[in-house]
Q: What sequence folds into this?
C-alpha cells in the first residue's frame, strides 16, 4: 500500500497539483498477454494506478461494456488465477501500483486470507471489491493489513455522512490508500454530464476533507474533457469502460495498443 | 461505529448486505420501513384486508386421500396428506402474498415506480397485479429462455399493464433477470422500489419476504390443529430461492417435533452437474447481495443452474434456508425433472389438481419422506405439503411430456 500512498503524495507535491490517473482493464480481455501489454502501456503513457479487473459471472455493478469484456475473459479461462498471473507479469515490467478490482464471491470462495497472500506475492497493492461495502469488509481488511495491502472503500452520491465517517473510523485501524467516489447513480460505462461530473469532483473534495484520505472519482468519465471536469476537486480520476471499448473495437493487438495509448495519453494531458 | 449497519441481517453466518455502496442507503430506508411501517397494527390491518378480500385468504387445506393411497396403497408409511392450497390464491400462486405486502409498503415509502425479476413469471404476474391495483408503473425483468417456456405469464403481465423486459445475458434465466433488475435499481433507486420475489437478496429482503409469506405457515398450523387435532409430522415445500418454503416453515419453527423439509430441483440429476440443488450440492458463497449456499466453481464463478421448472432454476438460495440446513432444523433433498413431471401427472389424475412444475418436486418425494418418517415414528406419518402454485403456466411443458 505504501506504493499507492507514495504515488498520490508525489502527485500532490508537484507544482500545479496534477491529478492522478487510474486506468481499468478487464484481465483476460482480449487475452492474458494482451492485458499485460495493455496495462504496461497505460503505465508508460502516464497512468498512476492500474486497476486490474477480475472478470466475474455476475457483474451487477457494471454496464454492458465491462460486462461483455468480463464474458469474453471468462470464455478464455479468465478469473482469479488468471488475473493474478496478469498482475504478476505487469509487476515484473513496471512499478506502477496495482489495485485488484472485482466482486466478492471469488475472494470468499478461495478464502480471503489465501487470496491476500497470493495477491501480495503477485505484487498487488490493494483490493477494490464493488459488492463488499465497508460494513462487510473488516475480515478482508484485517488479512490485507497484515500483508501490507489496502482495501479501497467506495462512496456514492446516496451515501449518508455517517458512511463517510465510518471510513474515517475504519482507516484508524486499517490504513486506507484512497477512497473511490462513484460519480453517478447507475452502473459503469455511462457518460456523465458536465453538471454531474463537476458535482462529483466537489463531493470528492468533501470526502477528502472529512476522511483526510485521497479521493478519486470514477464512473462516467470517458474522455479527456470529462476527466478534467471531474478532476477539479478530486485527487484523481478513474477511466474504465472507455478503455475497454477500445479493446472491444479492435481485433489486432498492435492497433488496440495504439488506440489505448492514444486515449491514455489524452487523458494524462488533460489532468 | 453505527451498529445499525454493522453485523445485522444475519441468519447465523448467512445473509448480510453484499451490494454496491450506492444501494446501502435504500436498504437502510427499507430496514427502517420494516421496523416502523410493516410492524404497525395499521399496516397489518390493511394488508390482512387485502389478503382476505382480494387474494381470497385463508386458502383451503385440502386432504389428498386418493393421492396418498396412490403413493402408499396400504397406508403404512403415509397416513394422511394435506395440501395447503396456495394455488387458489388470486394469480395462482403464493407470490401474491409478498407482492401485495411490498407494493403496499412501497406506496407508503413514497416510491413511484416498481421493478421486479421473475423466473416462472408468477412473481412477475403477482407484482404486475399489485401494481395495477395501486396504480403504479411496473417493469419486470425476465430471461429470454423463461419468456419462451412461460409464455402465458408473459401475456398476463402485459395485460396487467406491466412492461416485460427480456434479459439476454448469461443463461437468460432467473439469475440473469435479477442481475439486470439490480442494475436498474442502482440507477433509479431514488424513485424505484425493487420488489424481490424470493427470500433471497440483501438484508432486509429475506426477512421482509419471509414475513409476508409466513401467513402460509400460520394458517396451515391453525388449520391442521382444527382438522386433525394435532400438528403434522412434517411440513414440506419446494425450494428455489425458497419463499413459499420459508413462509410454510416459519409457522412451525417453534414446533420441534414438526420436521421441515425442502425439496430442490435436481434437474437431470445432481451428479450430472445440470441441476439447481443449491443446498444439496452447492457451497457457501455470495450471490445477489447475501451470503448463502451457491452453485459456483473453484474460481468463484457462479454456475448456470438447470431445472425444467423456471421458478427453481436458480444457483442461489435464501440465507435463512442455509442456516436452517446447517443448524439441522430443516432438511433438504432434491427431485429430478423426470420425477417432477411424473408427480405432476399423478397429482392431476388422483386429485384433480394440476400443480405447477415447481410444486411437483416435493410431490415426487412424498413416498421417500413418508417411509423415513414412519420408520422413526413407528406409525404412519401425517404430511403437510405447500401446493405453492397451479400448473396452468406449465401446460405446454406438461403436455409435451405426456405424449
A:
Amino acid at each position: 500500500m505504501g506504493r499507492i500512498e507514495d504515488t498520490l503524495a508525489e502527485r500532490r507535491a508537484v507544482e500545479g497539483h496534477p491529478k492522478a490517473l487510474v486506468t481499468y482493464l478487464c484481465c483476460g480481455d482480449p487475452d492474458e498477454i494482451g492485458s499485460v501489454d495493455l496495462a504496461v502501456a497505460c503505465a508508460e503513457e502516464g497512468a498512476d494506478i492500474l486497476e486490474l479487473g477480475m472478470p466475474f459471472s455476475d457483474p451487477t455493478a457494471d454496464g454492458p461494456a465491462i460486462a461483455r469484456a468480463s464474458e469474453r475473459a471468462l470464455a478464455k479461462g479468465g478469473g482469479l488465477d488468471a488475473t493474478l498471473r496478469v498482475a504478476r507479469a505487469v509487476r515484473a515490467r513496471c512499478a506502477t501500483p496495482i489495485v485488484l478490482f472485482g466482486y466478492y464471491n471469488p475472494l470468499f470462495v478461495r478464502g480471503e486470507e489465501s487470496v491476500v497472500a497470493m495477491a501480495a506475492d503477485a505484487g498487488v497493492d490493494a483490493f477494490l471489491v464493488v459488492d463488499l461495502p465497508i460494513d462487510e469488509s473488516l475480515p478482508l481488511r484485517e488479512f490485507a493489513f497484515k500483508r501490507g495491502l489496502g482495501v479501497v472503500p467506495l462512496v456514492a452520491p446516496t451515501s449518508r455522512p455517517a458512511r463517510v465517517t465510518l471510513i474515517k473510523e475504519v482507516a484508524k485501524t486499517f490504513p486506507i490508500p484512497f477512497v473511490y467516489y462513484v460519480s453517478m447513480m447507475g452502473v459503469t460505462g455511462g457518460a456523465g454530464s458536465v453538471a454531474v461530473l463537476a458535482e462529483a469532483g466537489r463531493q470528492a473534495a468533501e470526502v477528502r476533507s472529512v476522511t483526510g484520505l485521497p479521493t478519486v472519482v470514477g464512473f462516467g468519465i470517458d474522455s479527456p474533457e470529462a476527466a478534467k471536469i471531474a478532476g477539479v476537486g478530486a485527487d484523481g480520476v478513474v477511466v474504465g469502460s472507455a478503455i475497454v471499448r477500445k479493446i472491444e473495437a479492435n481485433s489486432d493487438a498492435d492497433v488496440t495498443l495504439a488506440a489505448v495509448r492514444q486515449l491514455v495519453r489524452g487523458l494524462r494531458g488533460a489532468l | 461505529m453505527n451498529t445499525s449497519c454493522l453485523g445485522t441481517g444475519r441468519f447465523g453466518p448467512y445473509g448480510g448486505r453484499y451490494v454496491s455502496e450506492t444501494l446501502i442507503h435504500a436498504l437502510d430506508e427499507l430496514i427502517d420501513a420494516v421496523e416502523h411501517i410493516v410492524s404497525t397494527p395499521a399496516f397489518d390491518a390493511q394488508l390482512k384486508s387485502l389478503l382476505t378480500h382480494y387474494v381470497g385468504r385463508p386458502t383451503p387445506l385440502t386432504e389428498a386421500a386418493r393421492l396418498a393411497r396412490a403413493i402408499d396403497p396400504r397406508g403404512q408409511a403415509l397416513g394422511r396428506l394435506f395440501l395447503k392450497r396456495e394455488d387458489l390464491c388470486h394469480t395462482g400462486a403464493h407470490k401474491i402474498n409478498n407482492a401485495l405486502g411490498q407494493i403496499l409498503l412501497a406506496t407508503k415509502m413514497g416510491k413511484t415506480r416498481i421493478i421486479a425479476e421473475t423466473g416462472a413469471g408468477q412473481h412477475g404476474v403477482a407484482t404486475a397485479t399489485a401494481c395495477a391495483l395501486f396504480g403504479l408503473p411496473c417493469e419486470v425483468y425476465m430471461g429470454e429462455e423463461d419468456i419462451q417456456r412461460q409464455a402465458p405469464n408473459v401475456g398476463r403481465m402485459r395485460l396487467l399493464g406491466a412492461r416485460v423486459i427480456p434479459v439476454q445475458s448469461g443463461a437468460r434465466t432467473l439469475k440473469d433477470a435479477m442481475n439486470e433488475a439490480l442494475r436498474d435499481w442502482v440507477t433509479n433507486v431514488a424513485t424505484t422500489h425493487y420488489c424481490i420475489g424470493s427470500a433471497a437478496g440483501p438484508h432486509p429482503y429475506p426477512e421482509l419476504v419471509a414475513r409476508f409469506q409466513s401467513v402460509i405457515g400460520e394458517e396451515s398450523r391453525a388449520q391442521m390443529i382444527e382438522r386433525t387435532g394435532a400438528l403434522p409430522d412434517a411440513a414440506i415445500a419446494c425450494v428455489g430461492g425458497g419463499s413459499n418454503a420459508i413462509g410454510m416453515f416459519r409457522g412451525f419453527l417453534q414446533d420441534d417435533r414438526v420436521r421441515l423439509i425442502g425439496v430442490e430441483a435436481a434437474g437431470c440429476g445432481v451428479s450430472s452437474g445440470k441441476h439447481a440443488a443449491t443446498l444439496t450440492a452447492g457451497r457457501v458463497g455470495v450471490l445477489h447481495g447475501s451470503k448463502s449456499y451457491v452453485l459456483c466453481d473453484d474460481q468463484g464463478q457462479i454456475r448456470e443452474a438447470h431445472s425444467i421448472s423456471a421458478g427453481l432454476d436458480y444457483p442461489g438460495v435464501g440465507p435463512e434456508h442455509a442456516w436452517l440446513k446447517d443448524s439441522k432444523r430443516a432438511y433438504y433433498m432434491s427431485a429430478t425433472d423426470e420425477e417432477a413431471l411424473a408427480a405432476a401427472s399423478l397429482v392431476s389424475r388422483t386429485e384433480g389438481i394440476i400443480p405447477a412444475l415447481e410444486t411437483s418436486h416435493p410431490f415426487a418425494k412424498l413416498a421417500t419422506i413418508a417411509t423415513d418418517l414412519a420408520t422413526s415414528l413407528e406409525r404412519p406419518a401425517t404430511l403437510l405439503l405447500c401446493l405453492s402454485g397451479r400448473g396452468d403456466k406449465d401446460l405446454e411443458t406438461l403436455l409435451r411430456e405426456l405424449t
Summary: Chain B touches chain A at residues 1-2, 5-7, 16-26, 28, 169-170, 175, 179, 182-183, 186-190, 283-289, 291, 294, 296, 298-303 (CB under 8 Å). The first helix of chain B runs from residue 21 to 38.
